[in-house]
Amino acid sequence: MIADLGQFCLYLxxxxxxxxxxxxxxxxxxxxxxxxxxxQTAALGQGLFIALAFAAxxxxxxxxxxxxxxVAANSHTTKPLFYKxxxxxxxxxxxxxxxxxxxxxxxxxxxxxxxxMPDSFRARVLGVQGLIGVFFLLFILFTSNxxxxxxxxxxxxxxxxxxxxxxxxxxxxxxLYLGYVGFSTAFSFAVxxxxxxxAGGLWVRYARPWILAAWxxxxxxxxxxxxxxxxxxxWGGWWFWDPVENASLMPWLLGxxxxxxxxxxxxxxxxxxxxxxxxxxxxxxxxxxxxVVRSGILTSVHAFAVDPARGTFILIILVLATGxxxxxxxxxxxxxxxxxxxxxxxxxxxxxxxxxxxxTITGTVFLGTFYPLFIELAGQDKISVGVPYYALTFVPxxxxxxxxxxxxxxxxxxxxxxxxxxxxxxxxxxxxxSVLILTGAATHGHNLLLALWLGLAxxxxxxxxxxxxxxxxxxxxxxxxxxxxxxxxxxxTWGAILAHLGIGLLVAGLGGATTAKEEGVALxxxxxxxxxxxxxxxxxxxxxxxxxxxxxxxxxxDAVSPGGGVVHLAPERRFYPExxxxxxxxxxxxxxxxxxxxxxxxxxxxxxxxxRFYSHPLAIWIWLGGFVMALGGLLALIGNRTQSxxxxxxxxxxxxxxxxxxxxxAPQPEGTA
Length: 673
Description:
Oligomer: single chain
Low-confidence stretches: 642-673
Strand content: 5-15%
Number of domains: 4
Radius of gyration: 27 Å
Helix content: 55-70%
Distance between the termini: 51 Å
Shape: globular
C-alpha cells in the first residue's frame, strides 16, 4: 500500500511538473497572471508530492518491507533504524529520488520566497526548473523506479553496503545533492534571463542567494565526504582524485567562479555575458557528475550504478540541457550590453583573473578524469591518471590563484592607480616570509615544501584579516571609530573574510598533512610495541564482540609520548554476516597540531596483527577550513540583499528602470527584450 502510494505520488508530481513547465513559459507570453500563478502553485504541488513519495520510501526502509526490491537489496532486519533510514538514499534509485526532491524543494522555495522578482521572470525560472523535473521524473519512473515490487517476498534483506554504515552517510549525500542540484537554480535564472532579456544584470541579484546557497551546501558536502573517507576507508587519506570525487570538485570550482563573477555583475554591471555562460556550465558539471556516478563508464568506489541504459538517459538530459542552454546563449548573448569598462589592475580585474584560473583548473580536472576514457574509446590500452598528474597541473595553477586572493580584495573598484598598493599587502608579505623562514629553520631546511605551504597559508590568513583592517581603518583611525566601523560592516564583507580565512586554514592543513606526514606498519602481538613519530605504540590486547549487525575485532593500543602522556586508541575490523564482507574502522586522535591515525589489519599465521600507523600534522584544519568557508558563504547569503537591490512588489518596468539607472543607461520600454 505504501509503495503504491509512493509511486502514485511520483506520477502526480510528473503531471504537475508538466503543468509547471507549460504555465511557466506560456503565462509570460500571454501576459496572463492566472497562468503565471498556476506555475507557482504547480511548483508547490510538485514539491509536496515528491516529498510524500520520499517519505513513503523512508517508511518502507524503516519497517523493512522486503516486498519492495530496493529495500530487499539494501536493508536488513538487524540493521539499526538510523542506518535503515540512511539507506533510503544509499543506492541508485533512492539517491535519484533524493535528487528530484531537492530539485522540487528549490522550485517550491523560489515560488514562495521569490516574490521580489517580476512575476513573468519568476514564472520563466519555474518553467525551466519544471522542465528539468520532467526529465528526471521520467528517468526515475521508467528506468530507476524505487517502488518496484519483488515476488516472492524474501524473509530477509541482503543488507547495506558496510562502508556506508557510518554517520557520515546521513549528512554527506543530502548536503552534496543540495549543492549539485542547487546549481539548477543558476541555470534556470540564466535561461530565464536570456529568454526575457536581462535587465542590466539585475537577474543576478535574484539569482545570487540561490547560487550562494548551492555553493555553501556543496562545500559542506565535499568536506563531510572527505572526513568520511578519512575515518572509514582505513587508508589514511582524505582525497584520492577518484572520478566521483572529481565530479563533485568540478561544479564546486565553477560555482566558486560563478559566485565571484556574479558579484561583479551585481556591484559593477560588468561580466554579465560571462556570468550567464558560467551559470549554464556550472549546472552542466553537476549533471556530468550525476552521469559519471550512474553510467558505469568510470570505475569508482562511490559509483551507484553501472547500467549503460541509465547512463544513456542521463547523457541525453545532459546534452539537451547543456546544448539547449548554450544554443540560447549563442542567440541572445551577442545582443547584451558589454557592461562597464574597468582597468586590468582593479578589483574587477582580479576577479576576472580568479575566474580564468578557476575555469582552467576545472579543465585540468576534467581532462584528468576523462582522459583514460578517451584513450580507451580510441582503442588503446587502459591507463590511469593519479596524484602525479594533479601535482603537476592542479597545484601550479592554484598557487597564483591563492596569491591573487589576498591582493584582489585590497584593490579599488574600476581602476586602481597602485598608490599605496605595496603598503596594503606589506603585512601579508612580511608575515608569510616570516613563517616561511621560521619553518625552514625549525626543520633545518629538510622540509622546504612545508615551509612554502605554511607561508602561503599565512599569506591567506593575514590577507583575510587585512580586509577587516582596511574596511575598519584599523591603525589609521581611533580605536573607538575602528570598532564602530567593524560593527557596521555588511554581513557580506564578514562572509568574504571568513571564506578567505577558511581557504588559509585548508591550505595549512593540506601542507602539514601532505608534506610532513609519517607512515608506518608493524606486525604486533599483544604486549609488543614499536616506535613511531616520536611516540611508542604498544598493542595492549585484542578483544572481540558483536555490534547491532556486525561482529568486530578491536585492538587496544596505547601511544606513549616521551613526556609520559598516553593516548588510548581502539581501531576495529568489522565483519557483516549479511553481506559477508569486512570493513576497517580506524581510530584517530585529533589535536590542533596533528592527528595520530591507527588502522588494524589482518592477523598473520604466527598470531601477530598487522597495524598501520599514520601521523598527519595539522590535518584537522583541512575540515575546519572547509566548514569556515561554508560559514563565510552563509554570512554572505544572509547579507546578500543590498539597499540597491530589487524590492518586493516592483513591477517589471520599475526593475528595468532601476537597472538602467544603476548602469547609467536609458531605461527600456516595457516589453523590450
